[in-house]
């Protein structure tokens, strides 16, 4: 592939990632009420401007680099970065709107479609690490300040508490993060639930509930 064609391919890839990250940022910025939003979404969204800046630096670097082998070295890392960015965008688009389901419940459902690595902080961390890999291979990609900010961001995101429990991607598991009751009996035997006020009477013989007489069949 000619130098012009190689550069065009990589620049197009970077541009597409910038568009995805910018769209994700706009989705978050449009939120007026953050009630019920998992805290790691806010922390992760705070890293989006830095990611955009580093991608723009990479775009300039590739555009000004005549060496085709350098440009080609960007491709695998950028392709992985784009996959993570698209998953991140999907999470934000599914979780941010105010709908009937709680944001946390919608987050769980959306993360399960991604599978392992679908936590918001995991996706942000993967993107930052991809950018760090490029900055390590090509120190001239960004300035010293940008490299320092990138290192700090990776350390901060890496220390975040998991926003979803281990095994969240297993759809056979039972989890309820919203309001209201959840009654599950996965084994044998009787399950008694009283989700309101008042008494719940159980017994092996005759029961009297209100004016009704319930006898146990012989």
TrEMBL record:
UniProtKB keywords: Signal
Domain of life the protein comes from: Eukaryota
One Pfam family in the UniProt entry: SesA
Keyword Signal: yes
Record domain NACHT-NTPase and P-loop NTPases N-terminal: where: 14-134
Endpoints of the signal sequence: 1-23
Protein name as catalogued: NACHT-NTPase and P-loop NTPases N-terminal domain-containing protein
Organism: Orbilia ellipsospora
